Amino acid sequence: MKLGSNILVESKRLSGTQVGLLCNHASVDENFRHIADRLLLDENITLGAVFGPQHGVNATVQDNMIETPHGHNNVHRTPDGLLRQGPVYSLYSETREPTAEMLHGLDVLIIDLQDVGTRVYTYIYTMANCLRACQRHKIPVIVCDRPNPIGGVKIEGETLLPGFESFVGQFPIPMRHGMTIGELATLFNNHFGIDAKLEVISMQGWHRANYWDATGLPWIMPSPNMPTLDSAIMYPGTVLFEGTMLSEGRGTTRPFELVGAPWIEAERFAAAMNALTLPGVQFRPTAFLPTFQKHAQATCGGCQIHVVDRKLFRPVLTGVALISVLRQFDKEKFTWKQPPYEYEHNKTPFDILSGSDRLRRQIEDGQSVIDIAANWKSDETAFNKVRKPFLLYKN
């Protein structure tokens, strides 16, 4: 298959322009060529500025709410054809939206970021913020499309409700949205009214049912705690652990696949989870020791989540079930994480992750996970209708 970035660069349509580029370390094509390097090879293109999302252009920063500084560590081509160090602007800093000064002199902003298919992944909101800024300053935006690693068919979870918007959720979409980053760009821009001058460069050869390992593309970690495709498959559900004081496996080699806490008895936990007979998944009791983040250097009891059938697996249902079971085990030791979280200093982190306070209250009330998930059906059906005009690829 062929990525949007490759199609754009090969078209030579950027000749004679000064471009800005929102990218990170994973902005490579199917031949491991980084888009910035490819633009620099074209003597007719001026790379005027590079912008980086959360974790930085080189994705060296591990944790949430650790800002990255601006810099000058990338080589840029100038209008006279010379190579020099140019500005690298962090959009996870004192600003999360490019300023007029940052955009000055640019003819177009190119966005080439790898999303992972979950509402709370911040790269898509950095993209939305760039669309807003470029709309105000009359700068066209080109989004180079990339695959949704967990496929573009399934939708799962409740829709974010008004009043719970944050940097991990700006728009009313479900947790698992089933769209590519290019499709999301048109949804944000056209349906939700950003109204920038936007063009999406579609991929060639991608089908909605394809997971990443069906594409033949190299897996480059989109962010430091997304080391494998398995991590991304789990992420729509186990990301909810970030709203608790349970470990989501950060600080291990298997984040979002390992979950637990020091007070959990692994065998009992895994047995309770397997007894639920959730579709497409098995739970193996294990112990792990996070090297950083929650429970650093403390041995945690828990389980590793093993997907045995992707077609049946429901990550959001599974994540809610894991949290619900652990809260029922010990309501005293189980605690929700307190603010701040992703620049939100008032609302409960779990609420902004789940998109409302409804899910937290349902778990606290002891509702069954099957009943909780049944309530998502209307949201999922409604969003499927909303997204349909913006889908670029067939099943």
Radius of gyration: 21 Å
Beta fraction = 5-15%
What class do helices, strands and sheet pairing give? alpha/beta
Strand order of the largest sheet: 3-4-2-1-5-6-7
What's the CATH first level of the largest domain? Alpha Beta
Counted beta strands:
10
Helix proportion range = 25-40%
CATH superfamily of the largest domain: Uncharacterised protein PF07075, DUF1343
Using the alpha-carbon principal axes, give the shape.
globular
* Sheet having the most strands: 7 strands, mixed
Order of helices and strands: HEHEEEHEHEHEHEHEEHHHHH
Count of DSSP-assigned helices: 12
Number of domains: 2
CATH A-level architecture of the largest domain = 3-Layer(aba) Sandwich
Q: What is the fold named in CATH at topology level of the largest domain?
A: Rossmann fold
Mean pLDDT: 95
| Low-confidence residue ranges | none
List the helices and strands and how they pair.
Elements: H1 4-11, E1 18-22, H2 35-41, E2 46-52, E3 71-77, E4 83-90, H3 100-103, E5 108-111, H4 123-136, E6 141-144, H5 181-191, E7 198-201, H6 229-238, E8 258-261, H7 266-275, E9 281-288, E10 300-307, H8 315-329, H9 349-354, H10 358-364, H11 369-374, H12 377-387
Parallel strand pairs: 1-2, 1-5, 2-4, 5-6, 6-7
Antiparallel strand pairs: 3-4, 8-10, 9-10
Helix pairs in contact: 4-5, 6-8
Task: Describe the protein in words.
The chain is α/β, with parallel strands linked by helices. It folds into 2 domains: 4-218, Rossmann fold, CATH 3.40.50.12170; 229-364, Alpha-Beta Complex (Aspartate Aminotransferase, domain 1), CATH 3.90.1150.140. The protein is 28% helix and 15% strand. It has helices at 4-11, 35-41, 100-103, 123-136, 181-191, 229-238, 266-275, 315-329, 349-354, 358-364, 369-374, 377-387, and strands at residues 18-22, 46-52, 71-77, 83-90, 108-111, 141-144, 198-201, 258-261, 281-288, 300-307. The longest helix is centred in the C-terminal third of the chain and has 15 residues, at 315-329. 50% of the residues are buried.
